[in-house]
Write a structure and sequence with these properties.
This protein is an all-alpha fold. The chain has a domain of 27 residues. It is built from four helices and no strands. Helix 1 runs antiparallel to helix 3.
């Protein structure tokens, strides 16, 4: 029975590690998107060209739209970061749970 529990606990740890890695990748992508949008906004706001040039790309780089996308991305980064830190601080290892259950009842024979 203990062997089965340890096998299940190991599988759970592998799954937790995979979930953590996926969250790290999502955070890296969101941070990259935030950086790109912020750089585009800085470039566009420092540019002296007209925003209303009549081309379809002018709306893509409209400072108001960029600000809204930056704000949305910033919220996304915060949520992913919170989820990542929450999973680290509030998850218990199955092995730790096992030892917490066994150790209080364990009485060594001297």
């Amino acid at each position: 029975m203990l062997k089965e529990y340890l096998t299940v606990a190991q599988d759970a740890l592998v799954t937790q590690k995979e979930l953590y890695q996926v969250k790290e990748q999502r955070l890296a992508l969101a941070l990259d998107q935030y950086t790109r949008l912020n750089d585009a906004y800085k470039d566009k706001s420092s540019s002296r060209t007209s925003l209303f040039s009549g081309s379809s790309s002018s709306t893509k780089y409209d400072p108001d739209i960029l600000k809204a996308e930056i704000s949305t991305t910033k919220v996304r980064v915060r949520c992913i970061f919170h989820s990542l830190t929450h999973s680290l601080t509030h998850s218990h290892s199955p092995l730790l749970n096992l030892f917490c259950c066994i150790l209080p009842t364990f009485s060594p024979q001297f």
